[in-house]
Amino acid sequence: MSSEAKAVIEEFNRLSRLDQLAVYEAIARKVTPADYGPLSDEDLTTIAAQTFALLDEEEDRARPR
Fold first, then answer.
1. Which of 10-19, 27-36, 42-51 has the lowest mean pLDDT?
2. d(CA 8, CA 15)
3. How many whole angstroms separate alpha carbon 15 and alpha carbon 13?
């Protein structure tokens, strides 16, 4: 990954969750799987692990009802 791309990711991580979601949705609308080909099993496994880690993080921060 280039230094420019890393800088974009770092800036993205500084955004609020709401802004991160807006950026994610904009990218998801613009990029299609046909643009880059199908994801590998390794890619899907990594994405799933990251998703579950984010969900765990959100769950840990949640206030009990």
1. 27-36
2. 11
3. 5
